[in-house]
């Protein structure tokens, strides 16, 4: 796969910020209306048809409800993110300032590590966007191709052809399940709709993954700088330690802004993931496995992988925060002056405090919590099953 190269290897998240600028979530604040237009389009084309016009039968209702929960997760998550734009701008500027400090004033080893992170995040973001665009194209094309292929294969004009829909919904007053003309109009409307859904979901995932990764990288850089402290001249060692403490505090500020910006996004993610797990398992237990459930399972896998990804990066952030404490333990602290040892002790105490992002200030987002959420979902399922 040929991807555009990263033009400025010292830049922090340039590709993500360009995407957010398109959506009105970064840059000129007068362009904020772009995201609200996207959100309004989602309400008009997805939410209202699903809520107001109902479904023909139970199986379609299950699939339509699962689609609505899956799609609402991305849009309402980004809506809550848009309300935290001030904190997000502070976070990005803080990360950019730290990156400038690392690349200009610190040893080359630290600068090389940050450049490696820049390259990896940029490459992952571009690969993910290419895959996401391909999936959206496939998701739009296959129902259209399947439906029109069925029409071309019909030999009896009285034979009924099943229309394969992109989204299970009654699109206002169009007869999209029976009329080929209305279905054609529906397919044309779904083209921008599917790409809008994919664009918003992809922007949400890249925004969270990239920012959590950079906060982890800044804590890693603090640990690397502590490891280099033993090689600093005795005359400059205390000054270097003071700068390390300042850098650590700025990294902690980044984590605080990260947690403030995304805590409610994670909260909604966890609730939505639990609800969709419970509803699918309950539906299978009551009605048995069917092709409709198989389609919903694809969405279940996507939301599960996304949720696990958030938990994985949350665990990585906590691990890197403890890495600062381990770097202090491993340093030759006993060779330093009494004043430096006092400062190292305070730095050690601060770095031993649990650090990470939370879901609504209730629970840390990590792999252990992901396992607990699975157990909790099964408990909810057992309770619900008793009611059917």
Write up this protein.
The chain starts with 13 loop residues before the first helix and ends with a helix. The protein is elongated, with a radius of gyration of 25 Å. Strands 1-2 form a two-stranded antiparallel ribbon. The chain has one domain (14-387). The chain has 388 residues and is an all-alpha fold. The protein is built from 10 helices and 2 strands, in the order H-H-H-H-H-H-H-H-H-E-E-H. The chain has helices spanning 14-22, 33-52, 58-83, 85-105, 108-153, 180-227, 234-287, 291-330, 338-351, 367-385, and strands at 358-359, 363-364.
Number-wise, the strands total 2
Could you tell me the mean pLDDT?
85
Uncertain segments: none
Distance between the termini: 50 Å
Calculate Rg over CA atoms: 25 Å
**Assembly of the depicted chains:** single chain
Total of helices: 10
Q: What order do the strands of the largest sheet run in, or round the barrel if closed?
A: 1-2
Mind describing the biggest β-sheet?
Answer: 2 strands, antiparallel
Estimated helix fraction = over 70%
Helices and strands, in order, run as HHHHHHHHHEEH
Shape annotation: elongated
Number of individual domains: 1
Q: What portion of residues belong to β-strands?
A: under 5%
Structural class: mainly alpha
List the SSEs and their pairings.
Layout: H1 14-22, H2 33-52, H3 58-83, H4 85-105, H5 108-153, H6 180-227, H7 234-287, H8 291-330, H9 338-351, E1 358-359, E2 363-364, H10 367-385
Antiparallel strand pairs: 1-2
Helix pairs in contact: 2-3, 3-6, 3-7, 3-8, 4-5, 4-6, 4-7, 5-6, 6-7, 6-8, 7-8, 7-9, 7-10, 8-9, 8-10
